[in-house]
């Protein structure tokens, strides 16, 4: 490696390292106003100039590569004078008010360092733009560093900011839009984060005080697992910024992770236990509430047996808390009736991947995105639902990778795709089988990989011969030639990385759809190597962890089958655990409706607002004798059904770990104190267990102590000690404290065998079909700005970015029904009805509609189908036959 000298200090540097990077690596605070480590060097501001021995003029440190033998000086009277001159020019654009209000801005800190005072006045040519509900624009204070333009292009890939004009007339504008609110901005906040001046700020920008603190933690929204820096003062979260060195998010966040945090201080946060009385909710002391919960659970077990109670873990709770909860179900109650929301989203992924590959989790890492030659995205909308991963995929495609999108809707990534296949909802299996048919019939498969790593090849080859593109075209509505093109592209471009989402799993053949996708990876050898694999994009922050910790009726912690792990768990737990099959979530609802289930403990999960066929769910819950809801707020399940509500701490208010979609365990750290008498979930479980005579089994002093018991039980996580999670987390399997973790699964063999079986999957059409009465197919899903049932995001500024659910329809269908954008419409299915506002979307196909479900007041799930996946019972949210009609009294036709 080259050896250079910087300010008298010699150091080795990696080839390609810039002088700026080398200086900052050894702690020299070399200024650079146009530089951001997330961006390609520009050298525009010149303030990073350094002197290099033998060079006649200063060089820009950000664009100069450190070379062998360089002797570099970063501070000298001449350099200081040069920098002060530049800052004096810039000071004409700095307002004294912003200089005082935002001392942490890079430019303002540099001006203080060099003794330069602000002299800015509001420019008549650059008026403030306050149109956006979160981001404030004051281009009078812009210094033309172009960081906002570059980060929007190079990181987010949104291309909102543009530099127009030349020289002194240069202006930064939001494209062709009249203001930022009207532009394509997705409120990721990257431009605000990089802006060194007060030209771009957000409504949460706050000056740091001596009594403030920054806490590194993990985002509490989707399963990407971005790391965040939480700025807090006392018990208040003031702002959130991206962790610059996060291996997952690379210093980037989405609108939810950066801005949707003020639910934490919402005035309707639960602060005390509540019990339903004759006249409404009655506050209780914790001791009374906990005693009553323990007494009711004991009474019901004694009267009806342990399997008369169900327990639901939470995708928003930590790994430690979910472990605690399933341990409670099995050792205190004596039942395997324990589940979580993975049941209704990615249980099909876990079941399919475990059946074929031996492990029910993503095969690769997000860092493989930058190594992929092609992407196959099936039933997922990454830029909308997993925005940081979506942005990384978009950037890789912009750099030349191929992209195949399989989705009925024209999602944003379809605009960047090499091929977009838009199948009829519910026809993923025949489409994926047709891709396999082309790969096999045209001999595009990886023969060596199949010979060494796949089984059942001859049977599969005979089976797949009948799944021709022509046959699939008639079922899916995708042209046969497009199917052939997609198969050839996926097979010929190596490595190829597959991502999938709920558009693949939430069907009656969801599990089998994931199996059919996995067949493609086996056929082409896209497993066990960088830039490849099968990777489910998990919806909620810890849904992967909740199920993996044992909130799953057939598996113990570590996704270990009960019969396989029973003796080991009983030895550590020092008690017997039941071997009887447990009920999954949908089975619990069925059992409640039939009168067999008598009680339910629901932690951090609004099942009434999110399960399909809402009226049936409410009827089933009404038959229970006792329902405990543990959450941040009185959600719909609590409001309409619960007997007891227990206030839980948020992710900002407790310690623990989350597990993201790439199997990464990351720390969650307490930044602020919880409000009122609120307790973390694990502590509530501990207290109820003690009251039911099991205190010694739950006598943990901290989440770390709980985690250490998890490590003792879970061989693949044994090496993941808390002190190893300080810098970006670890991916399991990680079997010892010398193990660096596993970035890529199945490199030399699969978890259960050397070879994985190819699966023969016959297409079984859904019973949910259209007819003259119900002519549209309804799909449901999430939105960029809102999250799941809106429990958190609807209480934040993000509600202004997406204030209401909509029904999205093709303009041609709306015209045929004489409906206009903004009209209130009634959606009717065979199962119920709901009312939404109509939104016209050119990306929708005729005969298909799409709706979000973030606002419980709309009760969209009254409409959705009760049909379920044939293997794991995930609901068929993506396919419901509906009628759409104008709501009487609405003037907008």
Describe the structure.
It is a single chain. The protein has 893 residues and is of the alpha/beta class. The chain has five domains: 3-75, Ubiquitin-like (UB roll); 90-202, Alpha-Beta Plaits (2-Layer Sandwich), CATH 3.30.70; 274-342 and 542-731, Rossmann fold (3-Layer(aba) Sandwich); 347-536, Dimethylsulfoxide Reductase, domain 2 (3-Layer(aba) Sandwich), CATH 3.40.228.10; 776-886, Barwin-like endoglucanases, CATH 2.40.40. The chain contains 29 helices and 37 strands. The strands form ten sheets. It has a seven-stranded mixed β-sheet, with helices on both faces. A six-stranded mixed barrel has the order 32-36-33-35-34-37. A five-stranded mixed β-sheet has the order 2-1-5-3-4, covered by helices on one side. A hairpin with a 3-residue loop joins strand 23 (555-556) and strand 24. The protein is globular, with a radius of gyration of 28 Å. The termini are far apart.
Structure characteristics:
893 residues; alpha/beta; Ubiquitin-like (UB roll); Alpha-Beta Plaits; Rossmann fold; 5 domains; 7-stranded mixed beta sheet; 6-stranded mixed barrel; 29 helices; globular
């Amino acid at each position: 490696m080259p050896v250079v000298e910087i300010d008298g200090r010699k150091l080795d540097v990696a080839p390609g390292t810039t002088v700026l990077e080398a200086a900052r690596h050894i702690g020299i605070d070399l200024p650079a106003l146009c530089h951001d480590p997330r961006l390609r060097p520009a050298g525009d501001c010149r303030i990073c100039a350094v002197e290099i021995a033998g060079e006649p003029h200063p060089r820009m440190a950000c664009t100069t590569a450190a070379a062998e033998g360089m002797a570099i000086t970063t501070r000298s009277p001449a350099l200081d004078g040069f920098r002060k001159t530049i800052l004096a020019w810039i000071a004409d654009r700095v307002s004294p008010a912003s200089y005082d209000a935002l001392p942490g801005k890079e430019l303002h800190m540099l001006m203080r360092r060099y003794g330069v005072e602000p002299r800015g006045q509001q420019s008549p040519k650059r008026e403030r733009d306050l149109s956006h509900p979160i981001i404030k624009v004051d281009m009078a204070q812009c210094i033309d560093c172009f960081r906002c333009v570059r980060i929007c292009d190079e990181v987010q890939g949104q291309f909102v900011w543009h530099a127009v004009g030349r020289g002194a007339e240069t202006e930064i504008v939001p494209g062709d839009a009249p203001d930022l609110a009207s532009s394509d901005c997705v409120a990721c906040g990257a431009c605000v984060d990089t802006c060194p001046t007060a030209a771009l700020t957000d409504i949460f920008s706050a000056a740091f005080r001596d009594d403030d603190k920054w806490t590194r933690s993990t985002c509490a929204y989707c399963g990407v697992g971005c790391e965040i820096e939480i700025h807090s003062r006392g018990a208040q979260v003031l702002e959130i910024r991206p962790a610059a060195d996060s291996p997952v998010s690379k210093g980037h966040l989405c609108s939810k992770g950066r801005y949707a945090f003020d639910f934490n201080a919402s005035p309707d946060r639960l602060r005390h236990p509540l019990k339903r009385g004759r006249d409404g909710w009655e506050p209780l002391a914790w001791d009374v509430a906990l005693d009553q919960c323990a007494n009711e659970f004991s009474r019901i077990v004694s009267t009806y047996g342990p399997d008369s109670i169900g327990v639901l873990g939470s995708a928003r709770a930590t790994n430690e808390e979910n472990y605690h909860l399933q341990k409670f179900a099995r050792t205190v109650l004596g039942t395997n009736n324990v589940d979580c929301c993975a049941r209704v989203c990615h249980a099909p992924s876990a079941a399919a991947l475990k059946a074929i590959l031996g492990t029910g989790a993503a095969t690769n890492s997000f860092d493989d995105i930058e190594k992929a030659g092609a992407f196959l995205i099936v039933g997922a909308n990454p830029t909308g639902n997993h925005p940081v991963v979506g942005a990384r995929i978009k950037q890789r495609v912009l750099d030349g990778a191929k992209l195949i999108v399989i989705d009925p809707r024209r999602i944003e990534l379809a605009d960047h795709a090499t091929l977009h296949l838009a199948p009829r909802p519910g026809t993923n299996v025949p489409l994926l089988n047709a891709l396999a048919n082309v790969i096999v019939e045209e001999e595009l498969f990886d023969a060596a990989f199949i010979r060494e790593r796949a089984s059942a090849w001859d049977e599969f080859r005979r089976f797949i011969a009948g799944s021709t593109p022509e046959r699939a075209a008639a079922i899916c509505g995708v042209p046969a030639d497009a199917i052939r093109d997609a198969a050839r592209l996926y097979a010929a471009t190596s490595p190829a990385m597959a991502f999938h989402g709920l558009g693949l799993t939430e069907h009656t053949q969801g599990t089998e759809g994931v199996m059919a996708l996995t067949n493609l990876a086996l056929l082409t050898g896209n497993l066990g190597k960088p830039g490849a694999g099968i990777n489910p994009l998990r919806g909620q922050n810890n849904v992967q962890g909740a199920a993996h910790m044992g909130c799953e009726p057939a598996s113990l912690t570590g996704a270990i089958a009960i019969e396989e792990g029973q003796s080991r768990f009983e030895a550590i737990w020092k008690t017997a655990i039941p071997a009887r099959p447990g009920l999954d979530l949908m089975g619990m609802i069925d059992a409640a409706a039939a009168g067999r289930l008598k009680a339910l403990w629901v932690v951090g999960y609004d099942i009434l607002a999110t399960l399909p066929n809402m009226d049936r769910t409410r009827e089933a819950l009404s038959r229970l004798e006792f329902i405990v809801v543990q959450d941040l707020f009185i959600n719909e399940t609590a409001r309409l059904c619960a007997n007891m509500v227990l206030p839980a701490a948020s992710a900002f208010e407790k310690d623990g770990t989350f597990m993201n979609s790439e199997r990464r365990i990351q720390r969650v750290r307490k930044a602020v104190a919880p409000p009122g008498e609120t307790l973390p979930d694990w502590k509530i479980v501990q207290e109820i267990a003690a009251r039911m005579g099991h205190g010694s089994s739950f006598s943990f002093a901290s989440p770390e102590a709980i985690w250490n018991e998890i490590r003792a039980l879970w061989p693949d996580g044994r090496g993941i000690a808390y002190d190893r999670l300080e810098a970006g987390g670890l991916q399991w399997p990680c079997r010892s404290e010398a193990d660096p973790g596993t970035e890529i699964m199945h490199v030399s063999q699969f978890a259960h065998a050397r070879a994985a079986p190819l699966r023969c999957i016959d297409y079984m059409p859904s019973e949910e079909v259209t007819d003259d009465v119900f002519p549209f197919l309804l799909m449901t899903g999430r939105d960029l700005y809102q999250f799941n049932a809106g429990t958190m995001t609807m209480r934040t500024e993000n509600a202004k970015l997406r204030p209401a659910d909509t029904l999205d329809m093709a303009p041609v269908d709306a015209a045929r029904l004489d409906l206009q954008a903004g009209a209130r419409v009634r959606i009717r299915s065979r199962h119920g009805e709901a009312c939404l506002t109509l939104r016209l979307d050119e990306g929708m196909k005729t005969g298909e509609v799409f709706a979000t479900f973030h606002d419980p007041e709309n009760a969209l799930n009254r409409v959705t189908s009760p049909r379920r996946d044939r293997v794991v019972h995930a609901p068929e949210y993506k396919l419901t036959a509906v009628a759409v009609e104008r709501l009487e009294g609405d003037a907008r036709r």
